[in-house]
Each structure stands twice: as structure tokens, then as C-alpha cells.
Amino acid sequence: MVSSLKELIDEPELGHSNDPEERFISSGVSWDSYESLLTKLENNSHYRVNYLDGILEIVSPSIRHEKIKTNLGMLLERFFYSKRIRFVPMGSSTFKNKARKAGVEPDECYCIGEEKKVPDLAIEVVLTSGSVSKLEIYRRLGVAEVWFWERNQFKLYHLRDNSQQEQATVYPDTYGYEPISQSEILPELDISLLEQCLTISDSIQAIDEFEQGLKAADEPK
Fold first, then answer.
1. Ranges for the Putative restriction endonuclease domain (predicted)?
2. Phi then psi for 212, rounded to 5 degrees?
3. Are 102 and 96 in contact (CB under 8 A)?
4. Torsion angle defined by CA atoms of residues 162, 167, 169 and 173, in that order, rounded to the nearest 10 degrees
5. Is 166 inside a domain boundary?
6. Any idea what DSSP says for residue 28?
């Protein structure tokens, strides 16, 4: 990728590197520069841009990352349809709050029930570690639940401290989010079943096993 923020903003065409997954990080970035970059990239969906207190992170996801993201969204939407849960998929839309100096583009995100200004659920596929605390960004934006897919399993977090304070006072070690084992906004979802099916490389097989698992859970005991 490029070596400086100015070079990235001024570059007429953004090319893809041979490196399958890259990360560009810059500190001391103004909000105006962040918004200029978003404008520059508005027609290029390949990059994910995150911003927190002047630290800018740009990620160029790998093909493996995008496969996992796509399969995860596919399975989740099967669950929504199966349970007749109304939802609004918002993909990797940009969510930002200038007053709180935070912005993010999730891998996948959803509003449950009806469309809202920020999603109820944000999901991050983690293959390489980053320098920006995603949970702090999501806290400042008020996202109720955040899932991280890392090393073939989920880590789930539910927001307990959405105050406007600079730092979380409840669950401060996880930025105001409580680690949970079961989703609170999707309590019927079997997370272990989702994990199992997400590790299946064949998409049709993954869907078949996921739907079989959903049916089995609905059968009388």
C-alpha cells in the first residue's frame, strides 16, 4: 500500500498489492483528513477504514477474509428467514461520530426489526491484529452487540456502558462491553452451530448443515 496518508488521498487510482492482506496505520490524523479519505474511497469497497482519536487504520482484506465474511452473512440471513426475524443488512457501511472522534466500517452489520442510524449488531472477521480498539469505537457509536470471528470461534460482547464519558466505567477492560456466550439480541441462535458451519469450506454443505441444525433445534424434545 502507500506510505503516507497524503499519498493515499492524492493517488488517482488505488491499486491492489500482491500482499493478500495489508494494514496502513497513521496517527495524528485530523477529522477533516479522515473524511477526505472516505470521500476518496467512496467508490472503492475493497478497503475498510477505522478512526479513533486521530488514529487512522486502513485494511485491505484478503480473499480468505472476504470468503469468511460472505459465508457468515449468508448463514445469518438463513437464520433470520427461518425465524421470521425482520432485519436490515447494512454490510460494510460507514458509521461515524465527529463529536466522539470515532468511525468504523464493519465487515458485516445488521439492524434488527427496523433500520436505525447505527446497527444493533456489528461483526468483525479478525485474521490479523489491528492497532485500533474496535470495541471502543463501537461503544462511542452505541452499537449494542459486537462479534469477533477469530481462530474459528466467536467472541461475543454486549454493551453495558454506553455513557458519553470519555472512558467506560462498567467493564472498563473491554471498553464497556460484557463478554457473553450467547447473543442477547438473537437469543435463539445457536452460536456453536454457526461456528461449526462457518468452518465448512463448501458453501452448499455449510448451508445444508446449518439448516438441518436449525430444524433439529425446533423439533419437540
1. 34-191
2. -65, -40
3. yes
4. 100
5. yes
6. S
Q: Confirm if 36 and 56 have CB atoms less than 8 A apart.
A: no
Q: What is the number of structural domains in the chain?
A: 1
Looking at the DSSP assignment, which residues form a beta bridge with residue 56?
A: 26, 51
Q: Would 47 be classed as within a structural domain?
A: no
The SS3 of residue 76 is helix
The pLDDT, as a whole number, for residue 4 is 53
Question: Which helix (H) or strand (E) is 71 found in, with range?
Answer: helix 63-83
**Is residue 35 assigned to a domain?**
no
C-alpha dihedral sign at 39, 42, 44, 45: positive
Span 171-187, mean pLDDT? 96
| CATH value at residue 183 | 3.90.1570
Q: Assess if residue 100 is contained within a domain.
A: no
Contact 27, 54 (CB under 8 A): yes
Phi first, then psi, for residue 132 (nearest 5°) are -105, 135
For residue 195, is pLDDT > 80?
yes
C-alpha cell at 68: 469468511
Mean pLDDT of the chain: 89
